[in-house]
Amino acid sequence: MTIGRREFVGTATVAVSALWTRTAPGRVRLNPSAGPLHLSSNTYPWSTFYGREQREFRMLDEACLAEVAASGLQGLEPGISDPAEIDALAPLLVRHRLEMRSVYMNSQLHDAEQGEASIAQIVAVARRARDAGTRIIVTNPSPLQWGGEQDKTDAQLAVQAQALNRLGAQLKALDVTLAYHNHDMELRCAAREFHHMMVGTDPDLVTLCLDAHWIYRGSSNSAVALFDIVQLYGPRVTELHVRQSRDHIWTEVFEEGDIDYTRLVALLQSQPVRPLVVLEQAVEQGSPHTLTAVEAHRRGCEHARRVFAPLAAS
Q1: 4: helix, coil or strand?
Q2: pLDDT tens track for 210-257
């Protein structure tokens, strides 16, 4: 069965309008009448599971998407770099009954010239993705060098924050929310990069994709730091990336472990947000290897739905 782009857009738009509602400028949440918790996954964790089995996860491969759907997930957050990828992926997701409520994109925003190019690229993707049901664009402003020790200067951080505001304004005009994402390196140097991306931007234009475990790991495995950030910036959280570890090593299944996600949910319940929950349970060196990607995600979905159920509606 094939589906044309125009037919797909019409179907997706009707479906999404029943699921999403705008609560305040720059804030997005699930419609409380939409039912149980919607659980999505990023493509990154699937690539780590496939990698340890000497396979490659390809988001345009229907066999890969079938495994995502078989795990019980309802959505996929793809890593996108080109608008054409949206056109290719969207009908495949419909065929596998997977939604694309969010899209993940890296960006180069600390340099003025590169920043304008990144903004144009992200906005172009957002225009296509919006028609496919996307309401959140997650961006991680890239470091000076992946894996490197060099940190951005104060001047570069100021340029980056200003670029996030411009990007957020352009996405808001499309009725799409911008969510800032970080890894562990943004927590170096007293977390000055992370905090400036929050303090130096407009909350109505730039929200937060709270990646709980990267904050935990970037703060030398500190739950105190994670929960402090939720207290500081909780009203800006529009998306959650969730991963678990035990003794600081990523577990194979999202389950009980180092991070008290029940406490995290309780803190978020006190805020005017109901974020999109994205399961990002990846594996690394030292992680157990007892399950397939589908089995691990299926068990993780069961646990996540119990833990995050209070965020579905209240």
Answers
A1: coil
A2: 999 999 999 999 999 999 999 999 999 999 999 999 999 999 999 999
Domain boundaries, the chain: 34-311
Q: Which of 167, 91, 96 is nearest to 136 (CA)?
A: 167
Q: How many whole angstroms from its chain centre is CA 110?
A: 21
Among residues 106, 105, 165, 103, the alpha carbon closest in space to that of 136 is found at: 103
Helices and strands in the chain, H and E counts: 11, 12
Q: What DSSP letter does each residue of 276-289 carry, written as one string? A: EEEE-----TT---
Structural fold of domain 34-311 = TIM Barrel (3.20.20)
pLDDT mean over 64-90: 97
With a cut of 90, say whether residue 142 has pLDDT above it. yes
- Written as six digits, the tokens of 171 are 């996405």
User: What is the predicted pLDDT for the residue at 35?
Assistant: 52
C-alpha to C-alpha distances, 194 to 100, 156, 222, 223, 295, nearest whole angstrom: 26, 13, 16, 16, 34
Query: Residue 35 — left, alpha, or beta (φ > 0 → left; ψ -120 to 50 → alpha)?
Result: left
Instruction: Read off the pLDDT of each residue in 77-92 and give the average, rounded to a whole number.
Output: 97
Tokens of 268: 């978020």
* Residues ≥6 apart with Cβ < 8 Å to 110: 141, 144, 152, 156, 157, 159, 160, 163
Q: For 49-78, what is the mean pLDDT?
A: 97
Closest CA to 300 of 275, 276, 283: 283
- Chain mean position to CA 140: 10
